[in-house]
Amino acid sequence: MTSQPLQQLNRLQTRWKPLLSRPDWYLSIIPEIEELVGELVNEPTSLRDAVKARLYDFFEFHLVRGDIALGPPCSVDGDRKPIDTIVIHHTSNPRGMRPSRLSAIELIRLYAPYFAKPTYRGDKSRQGQPIYSGHVRNGEQVFWPYHWIVRHDGRTERLLQDSEIGWHAGNWEVNCRSVAIALDGDYEEDRPSFIELQGIGALIRRHYPKVSLLRVVGHREVNPKTSCPSNLFLDSANVAGWKSDLLALMGKGDAATVG
Ligand SMILES: [Zn+2]
User: Ligand 1 centre and the CA of 188: distance in Å?
Assistant: First the structure.
């Protein structure tokens, strides 16, 4: 009984494989993914996670192999503004996120649904057209939403360049003027360690010293539809959130000595 969704995903993947080379592959595939995910709502978390992992495996594998039809890398960064905002996220996925996996995840979680139903009037013509991000690494397009990822040991890794707009805030105006920093893991009910906070603080101090601490915000503060980066990010009635820890640490200047 419980393996049914996995069997269903196997069947879907067999059908999807030959479709991936079509420019509009996502028009038929994304609704099927949404339906499958919708059916999992009442299933145990372990099964939901297993299906999600299998789904991401499939798209990462085919994206890396170049099996998925993509458009020419037209620039989408024309709206980039001076950076005055830092948005903190978590990947809400298992730790150790590979850049290639993040790219595949965001291709099907952000880019493909957007190209299937473009919301901005000027983008209507994108519907059904091959997907592009305009962000190229080693000759291949990447679909990263974040500029940086912060690992469990506090190390920070660069993803997007600052000149590139990340699709991360769910708010284009914020995307255009911000950089996105993501914790590598699921912090929904967890606090990042002091070392991780130091990593974030040092990164901001070193690369974005002119951004006011008032404009260091969590994803949930610019998009109320999400709890990202954590339910414990903001202060609650009797507990200080870890945003306060981060700002206190940066205010003290501790962060500047690390990284
Ligand atoms: Zn987020």
Answer: 11
Verify that 55 and 90 share a domain, yes or no. Answer: no
Which residues lie below 8 Å from residue 176, measured CB to CB, with a gap of 6+? 79, 80, 81, 165
C-alpha 231 to ligand 1 mean position (Å): 12
pLDDT at 257: 45
Q: What percent of the chain has pLDDT over 70?
A: 97
Burial of residue 14 (CB within 10 Å: 0-12, 13-18, 19+) is exposed
CA of 22 relative to ligand 1 center, distance in Å:
30
The pTM (predicted TM-score) of the whole model is 0.93
Q: Provide the CATH number for the domain around residue 179.
A: 3.40.80.10
Confidence (pLDDT) at 256? 45
pLDDT given for residue 120 in this prediction:
79
Ligand 1 geometric centre to CA of 164 (Å)? 17
Boundaries of domain holding 33: 4-64
- Tell me, in angstroms, the distance from the centre of ligand 1 to residue 139's CA: 27
Residues 64, 69, 73, 74, CA torsion sign: negative
Structurally, the chain folds into a number of domains equal to: 2
| pLDDT tens-place string over residues 173-194 | 999 999 999 999 999 999 999 9
Regions of the chain short of the pLDDT cut 50: 1, 255-259
All residues at 6 or more sequence positions from 104 whose CB lies less than 8 Å from its CB, including other chains: 56, 59, 60, 63, 64, 143
